[in-house]
Please model this.
Amino acid sequence: MKGSTSIQVDAPPRRRIHLGTRGYLTYFLFTLFVSVLARGSRLFIAIGVIVGLTLLIAPSALRLLRDWRFWLFPLILIASNLWILPADAYFHGIPYAQAGVNQGLQMSLRSIGIILGMQGLSRSISISEMAALLERVSRPGLGFALGVAINMLPLLQENAHNSFQALKMRGGLRHRRLQSLRLLFISVLVSTLRDAEDIVAAAQARAFRPDQAQRQALITSDQDKPLAIGLILLTALLIWPL
Amino acid sequence: MAKKGFSVRELVYIGLFGALWGALEMTLGATLHNIKFPFTGLVMGGLGMAVLLTGYYFVPKRGALLSIGLVTLILKGFSIGGVVLNPMIAIFMESLLAEIGLVIAGSKLPGYLMAGGLGASWNVIHPFFTQGVLAGQGWYAILQRTVSRGARMLGLSPNAVIAVMIALVAVYFIAGALGGLVGWTVSRTAARRLNSFDEAEASS
Model:
């Protein structure tokens, strides 16, 4: 259209299911419950379901599986279990415990399930959605505090850098290191507390009151409820009887 | 200001101390975990308690420590890195136990020491909960590992299981209580410096 401006936005991540905040939270709780509570062969099925669900809901979380460092932790878990129990089998002459292999494998699967759930949740919902969620489950204003914390991080970094440079120019940490570290901490704290006063002044100037602040709406989706019902049923199938 | 809730200033301070603890966890904590530094929980527990209890001086209300812990664990959850669930559980439990410590021993110096000590002591129980219960490794295997590492650190016999466990809890408690002491002194020094800045600004 003539005279109109167009805004190019990034294409949303390709997902087959679009959930709201509560939907993603349900997904995370599902991964946590079934990873911890499923036993025996049902644990393998549970992890398969979690991987499939993550592929549909939060595919970017699966990128973690491509990182070789991710596999170190499960491998260490399996390896550490090989010799904890009494050895009852041999592999090329090396004794190991067969029960340990099974136990290590189960531990690895549980950790993979929980990590995928956590990655899926943190990659799918924004920090502001998390703040809105926090407002609902805790005292009023904690979402605001979370926002302040996020804005404080670069300020902290800058203050820490400046204070460290000042300390370095006065001789650094060559003498009385503990005392110097204590002074560095106090210096960073005082400068950040002074910055915090500006945030307080800005919030008060806008007449912000935590008890009367409007709650940020949670993102909702039509698919949240069916997913929650489905996952509850699936959880029961995967963990019952315990 | 709401009677029971936090004021704007207190919320900003909760955010500040949450950011401070979160920054420590995301930088120093992540580095120590990645290089497999022995007894990272001892170091991070003591430092965390120092930050948390410094925060309590500026927000002396019930629920303040838990709120700082909540902000910290969310920051940790969104940080870059593989396994963040275990530290998140530790942060929550440490702040909860510190809150209980303040309820038990009051908000003076003994309360700070008790809160710090209780909070940091969680790190002894932490592997039993995360690896024993969540990962299903079994408590006996965790006990074996904890006792052998503890015995090595403390120079005790690995056969003296109870003595090693008591000594480990004592070491973590002392580290946390030291964190509480640092929190007690640092918060007062910082408040004095802030006041002197304010007075200097007012007089100029």
The radius of gyration of chain A is 25 Å.
